[in-house]
Amino acid sequence: MRAELEKFYERYIYLSGIKKTPKEYVDEVLQNLLVLGAATAVLALVGVALALELVPSPIPPEQAQLLFYLAPVPLVVGVFLSLDPYFKAQEHMRGAERELLYVMALLTTYAANGVPPHVAFERLKEYKELFPETVKIVRRMERVRMLYVVDELEAMEVEGRRVTSPLISDLLLSSASIERRGGDIYAVLRDKMRSVFNSVRESYKGLADKMKLVGDVILTVYGVLPLTLYTMFAMFASEEMAFQSTVYSYVVNPLMGAALVFLADSLYPKTPVKYTKYYRMALLLAPVGVAVFAALYVPWLLGFIRAKPGVLSGLPWTGVALAAALIAVSAPVAARYLAESRRLTSIDYALPSFVRDVAEEVKKGSTPALAVLTLSKTRSYGGALDRVVGKMASAIEAGRTFVEACRAVLNDLSWYGKMSFTLMVEADLMGAKPEVFDEVAEVTREIIDSLKIAKSSVGPLRVFGMVTAALIVGITAMLIRYVLEPVASMAESFQAAMASATTLIGVVGVRFVTPPMLPPLVDTMMAGSVITLFAMGMLTGKMSDGTLAAGFHYAAIMSAIGIAAILALFLL
Fold first, then answer.
1. Contact residues for 88 (Cβ-Cβ < 8 A; gap 6+)
2. CA 534 to CA 53: how far, in whole Å?
3. CA angle in degrees (0–180, nearest 5) for 353-354-360
4. Contact 190/108 with Cβ under 8 angstroms?
5. At what angle do helices 461-479 and 207-218 cross, to 10 degrees?
6. 560 by DSSP, 3-state: which?
7. CA neighbor of 471 nearest in space, from 550, 567, 558, 543
8. FRET pair for 228, CA 20 to 30 Å: which of 194, 283, 527, 558?
9. How far, in Å, are 281, 286, 293, 325 from residue 328 at the CA level?
């Protein structure tokens, strides 16, 4: 068994970059699993003892069962941690596949100028910021070449046989083979690039159908399921049911949202674009959200805020405080993201025209630097890109080269813009040949067209998300006011009638929620609905824009819808 585990981990440890031998890692895994397995056994025995009341405990037996259910958690966590090399290797391969389309574009540009693949791969190290995962592959090839004293092509073949991604493997093995045999490298790489472009374009065209599947799951998980469960909680009211309602609202509900986000992410075509700065901003704003929640929750807790007269369910103010806190965190992030996204989108959509104009000027005999100067005075591409071109022109007039001018504006561009400008930089460094710039213009057009297809196919999902959110909170609030409240007001009469008659309802143990039990149940329900709205907002951003960062915008709007619904039905 140990030998099989070492063989399983060997490739993934190599790809993940973990600095341990397979034998050392397997020894560590087996030791951890032994300790965590013992912890699981202890928790399970304690849970059984408490549930069966074999030992005295202040915890009710119903809640003690939770300890038994949680007993496998340490062992499950240990198993997941033991698979760390596998997960890291798979993430590395997915990242390399996300970069593949753009790496192919750069390799094709090099090939158009006669640069062989092994040299082109070496030059990729200069663009670690753009292609971090591909650069890791290049550096592993370097280590293989130095360790085993082989040439560049053989090192490329070794890496091609070790990677787990068929796409990356095919690129490496094909590049080594065509260079070794002396074929038309440019034709082969261009053909592969077109194939990848077509694959990405088809995946974007089918994106709307995939997101509709996610939408159906959302309607079931966040529409039908909560209403069914909350109705059951009200019909079988007990302390255990109240506890289960709390667990569902504050634990199960967020976990289902995370699972749906993961589902949408797995179906969405991947890009190398990173949005970590927005997530960091949200984390920095978390204390602000906590302060807003406390400022609204404490007065309600002290009794200064109450529901309007006649509302039997009380005022579910926890949902209001939670929604306000989420808005305080989401709104600033959303404002920053929207401003930056609109600026970058304006540049991206105008980029193909700019690159094509530069290519046409080069065809006429101008240098790329002179082409930028000419276009800055005679052509307009919209405010955002005009400012970028003007900044380049000013740098060139100040005596800087075209390459230096391009690099001076990289921070003003999106990832796609950086990619396009990088291609122009390489084309200029390789002699500014017209055919190479023509290839760069074609590649830029392909990239932006794929981006447009993606955005146009999933645009209607924004409306779907907003309508679904409004329906969820509206139906939940109406269920409380017009179903649960009347049921609670007549609960004693129902129970008396069932006690005096032999009915099926009495047999199955139906116990309607009573007026004292209703306010905490309603508070939990509406807080759960607010969490649902926030998750829906994040999902809407992921489905319509391809990133969770866009979800902060929709999450803030949907949280505001939650506040409006609660205030309208319970306070105003």
1. 12, 15, 16, 17, 18
2. 41
3. 85
4. yes
5. 10
6. helix
7. 558
8. 558
9. 12, 9, 9, 5
CA–CA separation, 240 vs 562, rounded Å?
A: 27
- Give 102-119 pLDDT, tens digit per residue: 888 888 888 887 888 888
pLDDT of 323 strictly over 90: yes
C-alpha span between 460 and 208 (Å, rounded):
9
Contact yes or no for 440/351 (Cβ under 8 A): no
User: Helix H segments across 52-72?
Assistant: 61-70
Rounded mean pLDDT, 367-385: 89
239 φ, ψ (degrees, to nearest 5) = -65, -35
Give the CA angle between residues 414, 416, 421 to the nearest 5°: 95
Bridge partners of 236, per DSSP, are 511
Determine the Cα–Cα distance for residues 357 and 348; give it in Å rounded to an integer. 15
pLDDT of residue 507: 45
Q: What angle do CA 271, 274, 278 make, to 5 degrees?
A: 140
**Could you tell me which of 401, 431, 419, 430 has the C-alpha nearest to residue 355?**
419
For residue 539, pLDDT beyond 70: yes
Cα separations in angstroms, 246 against 194, 229, 234, 446:
53, 12, 13, 50
How high is the mean pLDDT of the chain?
82
The predicted structure's pLDDT at residue 66: 67
- For residue 478, what are the CA distances in angstroms to 466, 525, 568? 18, 12, 11
Phi, psi of 511, rounded to the nearest 5 degrees:
-140, 105
pTM: 0.75
Sign of the alpha-carbon dihedral angle for 413, 200, 212, 532: negative
pLDDT band at 147 (very low <50, low <70, confident <90, very high): confident
303 phi/psi in degrees, rounded to 5: 90, 10
How many Cα atoms within 13 Å fall on the side-chain side of residue 148? Answer: 15
Q: How confident is the model at residue 64 (pLDDT cuts 50, 70, 90)?
A: low
For residues 215 and 227, give the distance between their C-alpha atoms in angstroms, rounded to a whole number. 17
Structure tokens at 149: 């004293």
Tell me how far apart the alpha carbons of residues 373 and 376 are, in angstroms, rounded to a whole number.
5
User: What single-letter DSSP state applies at residue 517?
Assistant: T
pLDDT at 435: 84
Contact yes or no for 337/278 (Cβ under 8 A):
yes
324 contact partners, CB below 8 Å, separation of at least 6: 292, 293, 296, 559, 563
Residue 168, number of CB atoms within 10 A of its CB: 22
pLDDT digits (tens, 9 = 90+) for 177-188: 888 887 778 888
Which pLDDT score is estimated for 495?
61
- How many whole angstroms from its chain centre is CA 535? 12
CB of 362 within 8 A of CB of 432?
A: yes
DSSP 511: B
Distance, in Å, from the CA atom of 276 to the CA atom of 272, rounded to the nearest integer, reads 12
